[in-house]
What does this fold into?
Amino acid sequence: MAGSGFGDIFKVTTWGESHGKALGVCIDGCPAGLALSVDDIQIQLDKRKPGGAYATKRSERDKAEILSGVFDNITTGCPITVVIMNEDARSADYSTLSEVFRPSHADFGYHIKYGIRDYRGGGRASGRETAAR
It folds into this structure.
């Protein structure tokens, strides 16, 4: 999918779907020797947890795991990859939407632009995808 990455020297590419197994990000171009721990990332993820009457009822821990690019809490200069597992994806909840585009959502625009219809919560056009950003 075009548009999942941005940057030239410091390149950030997100991946995954709202109802896939996981979401994540690969950050390339980060220099070696910077302090970075999973706790630094988790603090930011914890700020985006849903709440309130109009928020999603989905319960995701959004627990980050660094897969590469960090050793002993120091960046190595290799691409940094972070994964966030989807634990509460209930795709069946969206089955009634398989033939209808949701109003005020990106479903229709995404379908027109990419020719793919992922009605299970919007796929890449979901607010959940922003966890990786």
